[in-house]
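Fill-in record for Glutamate dehydrogenase.
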Amino acid sequence: MAVKRRTSQDVLLSTALENFYNAAEEMGLEDDLVEILSRSERRVCVSIPVEMDDGSVRVFDGYRVVHSSALGPAKGGIRFHPQVSIDETEALAFMMTWKCSLAGIPYGGGKGGVCCEPLELSLKEKERITRTFAARIEPFVGAWTDVPAPDVNTGAQEMVWFMDTISKIRGQLEPAVFTGKPVPLWGSKGRNAATGLGVATCAIELLRVLGKDPKDTSVAVQGFGNVGSFTAKFLHDAGVKVVAICDITGTYYCKDGIDVNKAMEHTQKNPKRLLEGYTQPGLEKSDPTDLLYLDVDVLLPCAMEGAINKSNADKVKAKHIVEGANGPLTPEADEILRPKGIYIVPDFLANSGGVIGSYFEWCQNLAGFFWSEEEYNQRLTSIMRSNFQRVWEYSKEKKVEMRRAAFMVAIKRVADAVKMRGVFL
Ligand SMILES: NC(=O)c1ccc[n+]([C@@H]2O[C@H](COP(=O)([O-])OP(=O)(O)OC[C@H]3O[C@@H](n4cnc5c(N)ncnc54)[C@H](O)[C@@H]3O)[C@@H](O)[C@H]2O)c1
């Protein structure tokens, strides 16, 4: 490859670029496509002057990056965090391009963020930041250009403020510009469980291609928040034996299987949504990390990034892993586990139910017609199954591990779109 590789001081961006260049080289991607896809189409930096509750004015920095719109409008969340920077935002936009491409949905990749500490902000200050940021990026967002969503420290309330601000500036309701809205305000029934349903579907598909009956299978799910609890629930509903769940309060193990619905009811009653105090016959409680080392058929890390790393990967006894969280395995952990013949279903395949769910919300907003939760789940499951199948077959055909196969499938779809559309802007 004769391309001069772009680099960055930002660890996340430099990793995103390196991963892309390595996969592009392995695929034999043409140099002009490598040049085009190694850069973002648009990096917008804005200042956000905000009057604070004490009357002083603070100016925050905000960013919105579109890495690629070759396949459709850019899609990606907006985060509020003190470490947000333009390069980190660009790295996350890169990842969204590949995630949307792999998901088979008509979206490109984008990401946004505001550099702020939400813990130090009042609700009113957060609203003023959100609305001023929305006004500053207004020329760049739209249902057919760039469609943001919630991310770290933003949620349904922020999406309503964003939608309301853009709608007022444009003088018409603009529901399809943001996804992740609450059900009464153009949100979708089913979105809350979408990521977990997608993770569980991938695990069931993995068992299917390995010729294993879900009913003779044991799994352990790390994390019992949004992703972990719904992953465990859908696996449990499919007849899989969920022998262990955990959260920051501990590992909850039962050799005959956890009653996941009961555990979910328990966390719904807990003010912090924790498993603390959960009990059932035969339950054993231990440290949160113990779950990672159980001898199960499938381990599903659904809590946080870097959970399995070079210091603990050799203790993992699970036969296979499905990554529900973003980046739960470090590259070093990957290196340690791969020689053991473990199949690892990568995060941007396994947890793409969330972005597919956002796509459903956008479709419903554009049509002004809402689906039942049953229809939403049925469509999601069917897309996840075929996405899994595509990566599985590609990995067998090219004799590469699933993470690399997923990356190559994703890059190819975007590169083909760029090629067909031609080189003009
Ligand atoms: N929510 C989504 O739609 C979505 C979509 C894609 C990816 N993800 C990723 O999935 C992961 C989880 O997201 P979430 O929305 O479920 O978060 P969440 O905050 O709802 O839940 C996180 C859970 O992990 C547990 N946890 C945290 N640290 C732990 C530790 N050290 N040991 C054991 N348990 C621990 C928490 O107690 C909690 O139960 C994150 O990596 C997130 O980026 C989420």
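KEY FINDING: The pocket of nicotinamide-adenine-dinucleotide is lined by residues 195, 222-228, 246-248, 288, 302-305, 324-326, 351, 354 (CB under 6 Å).
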